[in-house]
Design goal:
The protein has 443 residues and is an alpha/beta fold. The chain is built from 17 helices and twelve strands.
Length: 443
């Protein structure tokens, strides 16, 4: 099967979950089908070739004048509001035209997220030639993400404009695709209701941390990972430090040492790229450090007694939970933090939504290293069974192929906790991935 992927995403920026999902899925899909990606310019081309070394990638900048003359001109016979909505998320005209010209040579055209919709619809409206199957991985439902923001953000001029654009694109354009997928059950159900499509769930995956995490010495360290310019991560960090951490700090002695024996101090590390000024100021709180970008998130997860995912906004599956579990690091999270994932101590996580309850669970793991280790190992076993990237790629491959392999694609009403095994998993064992660096905190 030949698959064309318009890719208007900067793959040089690997500090968020969406980009990592794109890269890992395309790397694995390339073992099961023939991929060609189209990127907007030579700068993006260089970054894409570094991230996807075995994938064929083209750019309009490298096209000859003769090729450009063959590209179709008028591609989007849409109403004015739809055109304005697409322009809001960004649309590169040469990439649009090149994608439409190449599309009839492929079986499927596949895009990621709202940013890909214009390119996919351009293929749909191109006249003549074979009509390929059109599929989008929407990842999260953008409307759920908008609705989860704080009331002040939603009612701001920028928030109202974003909500209007997202609502229009979601309700008017996604339903014109042959298929779309989501990363979590809640997002899939919402997209299915809005579009009338049957939306399969393709969760995020993870590569296991190397086996050294099983023997590493754990410290009284709590970590929160994530790109800190991403609003849901910044909101989670602020809520954690202001509402939860003071309770943990007091329960663990508040930095006061009594008696001859000096206990190990407790520390909260907020790890992730581009922390906002608000996030950086959290380091003024006793016991809190804000690191910014680090060379290797995996090294922090190997040291930490536990990780936290205290999400109060956002949608989709949180890669931070999968990454921590892959490093045998137990997770304490809110319900939103583990949404779409198996939870509970037998799956590597403890869940609470009230600040005091969350603090109590953090203190329990800090004071009981044996329990923390047991829960961490259970999480590692869970992601090993259910959330490898090859398994996720096989599920996506069945959707890209269409009705012929409908049995491989689970609908939004089916349980997505047990992805099927597949031929792709044979090309590269999980053990060969164990040295894969967890260098990028994700959203």
């Amino acid at each position: 099967m030949k698959v064309l992927v318009p890719l208007p995403i900067d793959l040089s920026v690997m500090a968020n979950g969406r980009t990592l999902r794109v890269v890992h899925l395309l790397r694995e899909l390339n073992h099961g089908c023939e991929l060609t990606c189209v990127v907007p310019n030579d700068q993006r081309l260089k970054a894409a070739r570094q991230a996807l070394p075995n994938v064929h990638i083209e750019s309009p900048d490298a096209a000859s004048e003769a090729d450009r003359k063959r590209w179709p001109a008028d591609l989007l016979p849409l109403d004015g509001l739809s055109r304005r909505g697409l322009s809001f998320v960004g649309l590169d005209e040469p990439t649009l035209r090149m994608t439409a010209e190449l599309a009839p040579r492929f079986d499927t055209v596949f895009g990621f997220d709202v940013i890909s919709l214009g390119y996919l619809l351009a293929v749909r409206h191109t006249r003549g030639g074979r009509q390929p199957r059109i599929v989008a991985d929407m990842i999260d439902d953008p409307w759920i993400t908008c609705r989860s923001m704080s009331l002040g953000t939603r009612l701001s001029p920028a928030g109202l404009k974003q909500a209007a654009v997202v609502y229009w694109l979601r309700s008017r354009l996604i339903g014109g695709l042959d298929a779309c997928t989501a990363v979590a059950q809640r997002d899939a159900e919402s997209l299915a209701t809005a579009t009338g499509l049957n939306v399969p769930v393709v969760p995020n995956g993870v590569y296991l941390c190397d086996a050294s995490c099983l023997e590493s010495r754990r410290e009284n360290l709590v970590v929160l990972t994530g790109a800190m310019q991403f609003p849901p991560n910044a909101a989670a960090a602020c809520w954690l430090v202001r509402r939860v951490w003071p309770r943990v700090w007091r329960a663990m002695g508040g930095g006061q040492h009594h008696g001859a024996e000096t206990p190990e101090p407790v520390q909260l590390a907020i790890i992730g790229t581009s922390p906002t000024l608000r996030a950086r100021r959290l380091a003024e709180t006793p016991g809190v450090v804000v690191t910014g970008a680090v060379d290797d998130v995996g090294a922090w997860l190997k040291r930490a007694r536990l990780a936290v995912a205290p999400m109060v906004t956002g949608s989709g599956i949180k890669n931070k939970v999968l990454e921590a579990s892959a490093a045998a690091c137990p997770v304490v999270a809110t319900s939103l933090g583990v949404a779409g994932l198996p939870s509970g101590d037998n799956n590597g996580s403890l869940v609470a939504d009230r600040a005091q309850e969350l603090a109590d669970k953090i203190v329990t793991l800090l004071q009981n290293p044996s329990l923390a280790r047991t829960i961490g190992l259970a999480g590692r076993a869970m992601v090993s069974r259910q959330y490898s990237w090859p398994r996720m790629a096989q599920r996506m491959l069945g959707i890209l192929e269409g009705p012929r392999s409908a049995g491989n694609a689970r609908t939004c009403r089916e349980d997505s906790s047990n992805p099927p095994t597949h031929a792709l998993s044979g090309h590269q064992s999980e053990s060969s991935r164990e040295k894969e660096s967890l260098a990028h905190a994700t959203s």
